[in-house]
Amino acid sequence: MSHVAITIVTWNSMRYLPEALASIKAQTFRDWSLLIIDNASTDGVVDFVRANHPKAMIIRNTQNLGFCRAHNQGIAYAKAQLARDGEELFVLVTNPDILLEPDYLEKLLDSVERRPEVGSASGKLLKVRERGEGELREGERTEIIDTTGIKPYKNRRFVERGAGEMDDTGRYGKTEEVFGVSGALALYRLSALEDVANGNEYFDEDFFVYKEDLDLAWRLRLRGWSALFVPRAKAYHYRAAYGRDQASFLDVIRGRRGRSKVVNFYSYRNHLLLLAKNEQVANALLDMPRVAWYELRKFLYIVFAEPATLAAIPSYFKLLPRMLRKRRIAMRGAKTRAKEMRKWFV
């Protein structure tokens, strides 16, 4: 038997949250608990949850603590209050802009429970296209893939596998292992999270927000946990930042132009932290030319076209000593050899 703790971090999320909670309430799998961790919303999130989902546990922060720390609060609560003898506890980390098909949890757990080596899993996420504004806003569910898991390239560019493709080719139709799963909707085995935790941190709180799911996926891989993609389990995502799997360097640059300065700052800084913390030396040396060329082009673009993002560099060096301490802990406990890890970088 398994129990699922569903954790949602909210920050002025009323635009999407009612739909997300309705899709959770409709799940055919019933053994779940709902945890809302609110990062000081001012749009009535807490009042709405109390009025419409009275069984939900609410943790209310007095300031925005970021995605990582808030989800860590939820996971810690689940561990302390929901773990029961003889029962496996899973944590479903989900964004407030996710819509689950009614059998999402049932189908996902059906695949995961039989595979004790699986530390994380996710179904097939498809994109929701928004139309209209205000009360006339409606979401149109599409067959455009949002993510089928995380795919890393040899130059250490990480993408959502299949993003932007139409789900009509059968290419993503089988249950299979992937490098990791997107933090937008990720099922984690609590024992796996405990295995890679750094003290009370499951997600690395130094990341604050963005690419923390890549870091966790990499750490789980290093410890020998696998990640599973289960296409039978379907969900939909109102993703704001949206790119394509098969994107050129120019496409990547165009995508940065449409994002806020805050997003570009954390995305650039956290990518550098990700490499410093998790890269194995042998693989770094092997792929150094590809990584260096990719990073050089990105840096030159930032210098001339996105100078505000340069603030990420001193922030990176400020955090680097702490990242290297965390790296030493991770590498001492690593079970996956560099040669094994190399197969994931395509």
Question: How is this structure best described in words?
Answer:
By secondary structure, the protein is α/β, with parallel strands linked by helices. Helices cover 40% and strands 24% of the residues. It is built from 12 helices and 12 strands. Strands 1, 2, 3, 4, 5, 6, 7, 10, 11 and 12 form a 10-stranded mixed sheet that branches. A two-stranded antiparallel ribbon has the order 8-9. Strand 8 and strand 9 (158-160) form a beta hairpin. It is globular and about 55 Å long.
SSE series: EHEHEHEEHEEEEEEHHEHHHHHH
Poorly predicted runs of 5 or more residues: none
What is the first-to-last residue Cα distance? 37 Å
Shape, please? globular
* Radius of gyration, in angstroms, nearest whole number: 19 Å
Class from helix and strand fractions: alpha/beta
Number of strands: 12
For the largest beta-sheet, the strand count, sense and barrel status come to: 10 strands, mixed
The number of helical runs is 12
Q: Strand share of the residues?
A: 15-25%
How much helical structure, as a percent, in the residues?
25-40%
Mean pLDDT: 93
Q: Which assembly state applies to the chains in this document? A: single chain
